[in-house]
Amino acid sequence: MKEATGLLRVRLLHSLTGNQIAEEMRARGADSQALQQLEGKLHWAGAIFSGLSMEEAVELRKKAKELGAEAFLCKSLSARGKEKEAADLIAAGTLETLKRLAESLQEEVGRSLREMLENWQRPRAREWLCGGRRLQLGERTLVMGILNATPDSFSGDGFGVDIDEGLRRARQMAADGADILDVGGESSRPGAEPVSVEEELRRVLPLIERIAQEVEAAVSIDTTKAKVAEEALARGACIVNDISALRMEEGMAAAAARAKAGVVLMHMLGTPRDMQKDPRYADLMGEISSFLTEAVQRALAAGIGREQIVIDPGIGFGKTLEHNLEILRRLEELRALGYPILVGTSRKSTIGKILGTEPDDRLEGTAATVALAIAGGADIVRVHDVKEMARAAKMADAILRVKQAEPKEEEVVKWGKI
């Protein structure tokens, strides 16, 4: 197949049954005959090629079928979807089938698919470079505790500029199992009004300085402002958690790069002021994946190293309840991007809408989302209730992060090699 032009992109679906792949196809207008071919088939992997011309799609379908994959032409949901004769193509089969397909494709498309398949299967153990610290990921889920140095947090736990109270909470969170303490001085709740740089600095800098000196946990600054990030990093923070993914201020990426800080790049539709005004997606996971891929490229271009980057799908930031649930169901797909994943569901409105509870009464709902996020591939969870969520994470890790020990010699003799 010739190298496709324009906006052709490829992404992986998580391990799916045929029925689940059929849902992707149904959203793209696949006919009933094509859908029937998938009924009852289990444990498939899928790749979606979007932005194809019809000629490219037909050629790719032929190649995929020759290599043993099922391949279906669908209505395009990509940016080229407004053009005549545009198509998406879904190729489904075993991982080995998709690997053969990747090897057969030329240049960027084949390379992208190969990298995604490798990322999908790569062990999750790695280090996150955060300034002078190296945080170990993969062996267990890391817990990020939320410290809101604001008077208007949605969760009602803000403490404003009361440094003693903030420091007390930081110590308690560290004792309860927080690996990271995320300090924020500006609310990002839906409809929140921005605060000035000076006010944000007044709220966070004295607290960050004290925590860095007196508490063992790593310190993160939750901000979209380059000046705030720079000053916080100079006073002991080692992570920048930027909900704008380095978009709002040009100097943010440079500040993180200079300090070799860890960075969290989050997907958000719009800004906190308008993100919940009728959020819509043609292809939710595809658009999140594309956004995060572009954010990563922006970070790399600014001199931020790959080992410094963590991605976040942005639960609640420009998403409806249904969007948030779909992200949690399909979180595993983001592993194909090749970066550790942070998930923040704590006390959010999705939980409140389902359970009919206020923010301070969403503990059980948060615990469920934390456990399922870990099952879906989350490496870090951002939470208000550290003690309880650290326990939930520990339990989920015990089930999911099983180390395969080498059998003892006597066991090999007794049972034989399998």
Characterise this structure:
Helices cover 41% and strands 19% of the residues. The chain has 15 helices and 14 strands. The protein has helices at residues 18-27, 32-36, 54-66, 95-104, 107-121, 163-176, 197-214, 226-234, 251-259, 284-301, 321-329, 349-355, 363-375, 386-400, 409-415; strands at residues 9-16, 44-53, 70-75, 86-93, 126-130, 133-137, 142-148, 180-184, 218-222, 239-242, 262-266, 309-312, 342-343, 380-383. The strands form three sheets. Strands 12-11-10-9-8-7-14-13 form an eight-stranded parallel β-sheet. A four-stranded antiparallel β-sheet has the order 1-2-4-3, with helices on both faces. Helix 6 crosses helix 7 (197-214) and helix 7 packs parallel to helix 8 (226-234). Mean pLDDT is 86; it is low at 1-7, 79-83, 404-408 and 410-418.
Briefly summarize what is shown.
With 418 residues, the protein is α/β, with parallel strands linked by helices. 41% of the residues lie in helices and 19% in strands. The two termini are 41 Å apart.
Reconstruct the topology from this structure.
Layout: E1 9-16, H1 18-27, H2 32-36, E2 44-53, H3 54-66, E3 70-75, E4 86-93, H4 95-104, H5 107-121, E5 126-130, E6 133-137, E7 142-148, H6 163-176, E8 180-184, H7 197-214, E9 218-222, H8 226-234, E10 239-242, H9 251-259, E11 262-266, H10 284-301, E12 309-312, H11 321-329, E13 342-343, H12 349-355, H13 363-375, E14 380-383, H14 386-400, H15 409-415
Parallel strand pairs: 7-8, 7-14, 8-9, 9-10, 10-11, 11-12, 13-14
Antiparallel strand pairs: 1-2, 2-4, 3-4, 5-6
Helix pairs in contact: 4-5, 6-7, 6-14, 7-8, 8-9, 13-14
